[in-house]
Design brief:
The complex is a heterodimer of chains A (265) and B (375). Chain A is an alpha/beta fold. Chain A has helices at 2-11, 65-72, 114-119, 123-126, 134-146, 162-174, 192-207, 222-225, 242-245, 248-255, 259-264, and strands at residues 25-36, 39-50, 54-58, 80-85, 88-89, 97-100, 180-184, 211-215, 228-233, 235-241. Chain B contains 17 helices and 3 strands. The chains are: A alpha/beta (265), B mainly alpha (375).
Chain lengths: 265, 375
């Protein structure tokens, strides 16, 4: 913990964080262990994510990256361990957290429109039964505009391209107006234009003091996109500022001896 | 009896009116709830539930010794719910996939139910005859109190659906996300499933164990073809379901009392086939028509682009060229050219063609226009 906060201060530049927020832990994971059937998917994970970072979670397929996010969000039940958001259990802090699931996790042939999906982001603050009104609609339209999808608000979601669907998911999370964003492979299957658009939005979020945690696959873009990184392969290999720990040593530990091959892919 | 006679009778004859109302309400409620089942990819759930209800009917009869339909339906409801929760249990607690769990529960419960039915038939009890009507249903046995029960359940279902509309919708689309927003997804799920079980159990007397799932799926599958909005889909499915009930009853009553349940299911099937073929956006027919039209447009655009390519090299864009020039390269026909003339893109003069100003501009904008339309 001491080491983490020290690194955090060292890394902080005036543009990304105010000194006051430096060192505040947004997400804390303790001894988290998750297993599907008998095979452990995550083993004894301890993780502290400082407020205001744009963090990549990297690791090979089956390393438990998505599982980590889903366990933090309470979608999966861990065997052991606990998660706190700003020092309190996740259940009490839901309003602070937004989630962007993998695009492939839903059926895009569902009969609904882009605006409707974005509006779902307001359901959490509305609570049970209450329907979204003008205020929620306005917020959703703004979110659509932020991701450059306003022109598609009435489009049936199956008629959107993969990149557009990803933007819709992002807009749905933006409308939650959270402090911490968890995103599961937001760059999967999107073209270069969309990737740039998305990363710009993520960087804006960080500038606004939000914490953004992204499951990421493309190792080459890690130093360019992120300021914080967690290496994961069932166990936590390393976590910290990209410029300090994003090196061959950690990559080798995470991906095994062939990591260079996986970079070339 | 013929159709006109039938229509007269619907308004005068007590039995026929009861049956028609009953099947209409049943069709509406199963269509509505079926939309949820279809969108959750739980199409087979209805089949499993209806089959799972059979042993409940038999056991209820064995315990009470009476054929009171409400008692038997409570038995059906209990065993249907047990089957449903076992399916959920199998899926969450074992490696088995849901289709395996559904198939397993369906056949085990149905087998057990059939065993009990044969056991009951061997009993020296004059009252036992007629329990097998629950296999294929017998709408003729509907009485007013049955219809009232259906109406009440449908009413409650409608109120619950409207109250929790937002929650149902988001759960159907993205269950994990719903959970992160703080909704109790298990509760919403159980609510939906319970109503599906209720609707199925209500339909057993009319349509029967074996065909009941079609009542759930067919109207929903048909409705999906016509709309991209969930509320319209649910509404349409209810309408299709209700009409299947009414038409099915009418046909069966007017044609020598054909068995009502199967006729209703077949009518619902006709709705499905019609929707699959004739729906404007998703139907096979219009898809094919659009495909052919697009291909023709593309041919036309290709011709125009080629002409533009030639015309570009001249200072005067309307400089005439020999049609032969086109033929030599691509084999364009006079009829293709005629279509361009109709659109005022091209002028023909003997064996020569020339681009008009509009034609030239259209051709120049062809690709940029296409890419903006795409975006």
């Amino acid at each position: 913990m001491k080491k983490d906060s020290k690194e955090n201060i060292k890394h902080s530049s005036p543009s990304d964080k105010t000194p006051a927020s430096a060192g505040v832990i947004a997400v804390k994971v303790d001894d988290l262990t998750v297993a599907y059937n008998y095979k452990p998917v995550l083993w004894d994970i301890d993780l502290e994510i400082p407020e205001g970072v744009l963090m990549a979670i990297v690791g090979p397929n089956g390393a438990g990256k998505s599982t980590l996010i889903k366990s933090i969000l309470g979608i999966l039940k861990p065997i052991a361990g606990s998660v706190t958001i700003y020092g309190k259990p996740y259940k009490k802090q839901r309003q602070l957290v937004a989630y962007v699931p993998q695009k492939g996790s839903v059926d895009w042939d569902f009969p609904t429109t882009a605006l409707d999906v974005v509006m779902m982001g307001t359901y959490g603050s509305l609570g049970w039964i209450k329907r979204p009104g003008q205020k929620e609609k306005k917020a959703s339209l703004e979110a659509l505009e932020k991701v450059g999808m306003l022109a598609f608000k009435s489009r049936q979601i199956s008629q959107l391209s993969g990149g557009q669907q990803q933007r819709i998911f992002l807009a749905r999370a933006l409308v939650q107006n959270a402090s911490i964003y968890f995103m599961d492979e937001p760059f999967q299957g999107v073209d270069a234009t969309t990737e740039i658009a998305i990363i710009n939005i993520l960087k804006e979020l960080r500038k606004a003091g939000k914490t953004v945690i992204v499951v990421h696959h493309d190792l080459q873009t890690v130093p360019e996109y992120f300021d914080w990184v967690t290496f994961l392969n069932v166990k936590k290999i390393a976590t910290g500022p990209v410029k300090d720990i994003f090196n061959d040593d950690n990559l080798t530990k995470t991906y095994g001896i062939n990591y260079k091959v996986s970079i070339q892919e | 009896m013929d159709i006109t006679e039938y229509i007269k009778l619907v308004f005068t004859d007590y039995t026929l009116r009861t049956i028609t109302l009953g099947t209409a309400i049943l069709g509406a409620v199963t269509g509505m709830l079926g939309s949820f089942a279809v969108l959750r990819k739980q199409s087979l759930l209805g089949d499993a539930i209806s089959h799972a209800a059979l042993p409940g009917i038999a056991i209820a009869f064995l315990i009470t010794g009476a054929k009171d339909s409400n008692t038997l339906l409570i038995g059906a409801l209990i065993s249907g719910l047990i089957g449903t929760f076992w399916i959920r249990g199998i899926v969450t607690k074992t490696h088995l996939k849901s289709d395996t769990a559904l198939g397993l529960i369906l056949s085990l419960f149905f087998g057990f139910g059939m065993l009990l039915l044969t056991f009951i038939q061997k009993q020296p009890n004059a009252n036992q005859a007629g329990l097998d009507k629950y296999l294929f249903g017998q709408a003729a046995t509907l009485v007013e109190s049955d219809v009232w029960l259906m109406a009440i359940v449908t009413g409650i279902c409608l109120i619950v659906m409207l109250t929790f509309w937002k929650e149902f919708k988001i759960l159907l689309f993205d269950a994990d996300y719903t959970q992160t927003l703080g909704f109790n997804t298990k509760f919403i799920d159980i609510l939906i499933t319970t109503f599906i079980v209720l609707a199925i159990v209500l339909g057993l007397q009319t349509v029967g164990v074996v065909l009941m799932s079609a009542m759930l799926l067919a109207p929903a599958a048909a409705a999906r073809q016509w709309t991209n909005s969930l509320s319209v889909m649910v509404f349409l499915a209810a309408i299709f379901g209700a009409f299947s009930g009414v038409f099915g009853t009418a046909i069966s009553a007017s044609q020598n009392n054909l068995s009502t349940g199967p006729v209703i299911v077949l009518v619902a099937g006709v709705f499905v086939i019609f929707s699959f073929i004739f729906s404007p956006s998703r139907g096979l027919l219009f898809k094919q028509i659009r495909f052919i039209k697009n291909r023709r447009d593309l041919e036309l655009h290709k011709t125009l682009a080629f002409m533009h390519h030639i015309a570009e090299t001249h200072e005067d864009i309307s400089h005439p060229h020999a049609i032969k020039l086109l033929n030599n390269f691509q084999g364009y026909t006079r009829s293709t050219l005629q279509k361009l003339v109709d659109k005022d893109y091209v002028e023909l003069n003997g064996n020569m063609w020339s681009l008009t100003k509009t034609g030239f501009e259209t051709a120049a904008n062809l690709y940029t226009k296409q890419s903006t339309e795409d975006e």
